[in-house]
């Protein structure tokens, strides 16, 4: 009886150890096609990529939202002074599909591309990207898909900041962020990056200590002809590694107007109550 109990306890202990070992195994980064990939690259360091979330969730969004803090990951990849390193570049890209016949998802047809353009500064916005030919858009979508497919297989960083959404990708890996943006910028869509020396400790839409700002555009996939991007969101990164999504200006302005209207009616109601 005692022997059987000891055996049972031993089996339970072994099972628990196995579960612990399995839970300790590093998992691949959390990612689905259609999410926005935030990529960082430096000439002397490895590539770091982060999943910002579903692109359509930022479309026409009126909320200024905190996304995540990735300071621990960035320091591990590029050093403590990453935010002032002019050789460090960052950019954003995403696409749901590169197959033209795929169905519409969340209002986006296949080959609807999301990508960033660097702001000249925190006051001046960027120039909207444009693609003239369907073949160019298809080539860009294919390149973005290639980058996403590689990112989707990477081991997620284990720091609390990344929440399983970030990964350091060796430059020797074919299809990493640096391969597609290092000179080619996803074929037909150039200049999607910004270096960390372009903006220094400014404020943007109420967010302070901003060290970088990227406008993200949506390029639709018309049946034929050219397409020009529409501004959807501006992403900023603070010196402490916080990432924020800022609504595009007209949405943000409407948000401000609605706030003023609410304040006006509240004030008027209070005055009526006092009368």
Can you characterise this structure?
The protein has helices spanning 2-24, 71-78, 134-151, 177-181, 249-274; strands spanning 35-42, 47-54, 65-69, 88-95, 113-118, 130-131, 166-169, 193-195, 202-204, 207-219, 227-228, 230-238, 242-247. It has one domain. It has 275 residues and is of the alpha+beta class. The N and C termini lie far apart (86 Å). The chain has 5 helices and 13 strands. The strands form 2 sheets. Strands 1, 2, 3, 4, 5, 7, 8, 9, 10, 12 and 13 form an 11-stranded antiparallel sheet that branches. A two-stranded antiparallel sheet has the order 6-11. It is 29% helix and 28% strand.
Topology:
Blueprint: H1 2-24, E1 35-42, E2 47-54, E3 65-69, H2 71-78, E4 88-95, E5 113-118, E6 130-131, H3 134-151, E7 166-169, H4 177-181, E8 193-195, E9 202-204, E10 207-219, E11 227-228, E12 230-238, E13 242-247, H5 249-274
Antiparallel strand pairs: 1-2, 1-4, 2-7, 3-13, 4-5, 4-8, 5-10, 6-11, 9-10, 10-12, 12-13
Summarize this structure as a short list of keywords or feature phrases.
275 residues; alpha+beta; eleven-stranded antiparallel β-sheet; 5 helices; 13 strands; 29% helix; globular
User: How many strands in all?
Assistant: 13
Percent of residues in helices comes to: 25-40%
Distance between the termini: 86 Å
Mean pLDDT: 82
How would you spell out the order of helices and strands? HEEEHEEEHEHEEEEEEH
Whole-angstrom Rg: 23 Å
Counting structural domains, the number is 1
Estimated structural class: alpha+beta
SS strand fraction: 25-35%
* Approximate shape: globular
């Amino acid at each position: 009886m005692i022997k059987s109990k000891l055996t049972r306890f031993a089996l339970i202990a072994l099972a628990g150890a196995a579960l612990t070992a399995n839970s300790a195994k590093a998992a691949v980064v959390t990612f689905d096609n259609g999410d926005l990939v935030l990529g960082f690259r430096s000439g002397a360091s490895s590539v770091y990529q982060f999943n910002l979330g579903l692109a359509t969730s930022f479309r026409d969004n009126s909320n200024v939202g905190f996304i995540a803090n990735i300071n621990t990951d960035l320091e591990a990849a590029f050093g403590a002074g990453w935010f002032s390193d002019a050789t460090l570049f960052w950019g954003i890209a995403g696409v749901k599909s590169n197959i033209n016949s795929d169905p519409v998802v969340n209002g986006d047809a296949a080959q609807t591309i999301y990508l960033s353009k660097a702001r000249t500064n925190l006051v001046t916005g960027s120039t909207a990207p444009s693609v003239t030919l369907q073949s160019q858009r298809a080539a860009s979508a294919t390149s973005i898909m290639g980058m996403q497919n590689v990112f989707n297989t990477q081991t997620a960083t284990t720091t609390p900041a990344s929440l399983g959404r970030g990964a350091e990708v060796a430059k020797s890996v074919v299809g990493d962020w640096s391969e597609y943006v290092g000179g080619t910028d996803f074929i037909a869509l150039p200049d999607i990056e910004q270096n960390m020396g372009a903006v220094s400790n400014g404020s943007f839409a109420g967010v302070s200590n901003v060290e970088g700002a990227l406008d993200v555009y949506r390029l639709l996939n018309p049946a034929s002809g050219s397409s020009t991007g529409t501004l959807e969101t501006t992403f900023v990164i603070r010196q402490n590694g916080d990432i924020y999504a800022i609504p595009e200006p007209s949405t943000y302005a409407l948000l401000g107007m609605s706030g003023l209207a609410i304040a006006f009616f509240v004030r008027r109601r209070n005055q009526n109550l006092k009368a």
